[in-house]
Amino acid sequence: MIRRELTISNRLGLHARATAKLVQLLSTFRCQATLEARGREVNAKSIMGVMLLAAGPGSQVILQVDGEDAEAAAEAVAALFECRFDEDS
């Protein structure tokens, strides 16, 4: 199992478009994935689950991935967070 602490740095946080990008990205991997924020843990491959976190800009979230391609999934998600969900353009 891989655990990564990530900071939401895009301007609007995990809003619908950013959440859709995250879920779409994770759906390409076979591993299980969860996100945790403020004590609530949700399936990171579920749009509704991630939206329920209501994680705004500056929020800390913990990504947990487990499975055969967990490392690749964690790297891909970290890159998505680092590029601010491609919303700076």
Automatic annotation (TrEMBL):
InterPro entries: HPr, HPr-like, HPr-like_sf, PTS_HPr_His_P_site, PTS_HPr_Ser_P_site. Residues 1-88 form the HPr domain. Pfam families: PTS-HPr. The keyword Cytoplasm applies. It is found in: Cytoplasm. Belongs to the HPr family. This is HPr family phosphocarrier protein. It comes from Thermomonas beijingensis.
